[in-house]
Amino acid sequence: MTEVIDGEAVAADVRSGVADCVATLADAGVKPGLATVLMSDDPASETYVSMKQRDCEEVGIESVHVEIDANAPAAELYKTIDDLNQREDVHGILVQLPVPDHVDKRGVLRRIDPEKDVDGFHPENVGRLVAGNARYKPCTPHGVQKLLDAYDVETEGADAVVVGRSDIVGKPMANLLIQKAPTGNATTTVCHSRTEDLDAKLADADIVVAAAGIPEFVDGSTLKSGATVIDVGINRVDADTEKGYELVGDVDYDSASEVAGAITPVPGGVGPMTRAMLLYNTVKAAARRHDVDIDLP
Ligand code: GUN
Is 52 in the active site? Predict the structure, then answer.
């Protein structure tokens, strides 16, 4: 029987633990604050940011939102980041990606105070993660780690395949899986668009993390029987629904769920975890700033 990994349930546990941290911080006179910055007209980005704001409210994190016209000069975004870096009530800053083409993404990420970089994308934080001394683990791979842990998936000695090499998911995911640490110690292969024989890699994988950004890219016929399949994809595809689209993952769920030992659904798998880990990083940032001991979930 294939086990369906319930990301909503695990995320609810994380949020509950985060809410306890918020209470501890309140006792110390600290209210954690997250700033979200949106410089995009993309409806999916707008939805993600508004969900993040709602999540904050639910656990008692103050949320500040800044919207910048997608055609505005990059300097406007830089100025916003500089202001947020200075604000005492803002402990975490998230600039929703992608930013418009005329804005240098790397310059944006470098500009955020690394202590407030709750995405974990600043080069200093990337370096720390790779060195095994993470300050903030990027939210999606951290959420995947929590799911593997919650479902007692053995990573030590396992063959893991990460499909996708993005800075946001693929690279940090692989780095976490190879760490000499709990939920690490996996023999990890990173596959991408130039991988010669993806099917052969997948056939040996005990754990597959699909993060290619291509709808239903991984088919069940390529998977090892009993593999744990983590689907990071959230793709909008045209469909005859009220909204005119439906969400599908990077894994063909129907075929994969016939072969996998455990699998995440889309939606309801990794997505809620990504959002929960942002709250986690935000309370961590507030606790670091004010030197308060909290018991992170
Ligand atoms: N766009 C897609 N995923 C993410 C994320 O985790 N953080 C930010 N800032 N932008 C994103």
Answer: yes
Q: How far is the CA of 263 from the centre of ligand 1 (A)?
A: 23
Question: What separation in Å is there between the alpha carbon of 45 and the centre of ligand 1?
Answer: 9
The fold adopted by the segment(s) 29-117 is Rossmann fold (3.40.50)
The CATH class of the 139-272 domain is: alpha beta
Catalytic entry in 55, 116, 117, 119:
119
How many CB atoms within 10 Å of residue 214?
A: 15
DSSP states along 120-170: --SHHHHHHHHTT--SS--HHHHHHHHHHHHTT---TT-EEEEE---TTTH
**274 C-alpha to center of ligand 1: Å?**
9
What confidence tens digit (pLDDT) does each residue in 196-228 have?
Answer: 999 999 999 999 999 999 999 999 999 999 999
Q: What are the average pLDDT values for consecutive 10-residue runs of the chain, which has 297 residues?
A: 97 98 98 98 96 98 98 98 98 98 98 98 98 98 98 98 98 98 98 97 98 98 98 96 96 98 98 98 98 98
- 96 tagged catalytic: yes
pLDDT tens digits, 159-193: 999 999 999 999 999 999 999 999 999 999 999 99
Structure tokens at 25: 């911080």
Question: Best substitution site from 34, 45, 48 to test ligand 1's pocket, by max atoms within 8 Å of Cβ?
Answer: 48
Q: Which residues line ligand 1 (CB under 6 A)?
A: 94-97, 119, 139-140, 168
Between the CA of residue 58 and those of 12, 25, 96, 226, 237, what are the distances in Å? 11, 16, 20, 37, 30
Domain ranges of the chain: 29-117, 139-272
pTM: 0.98
Rounded distance from Cα 119 to ligand 1 centre (Å): 7
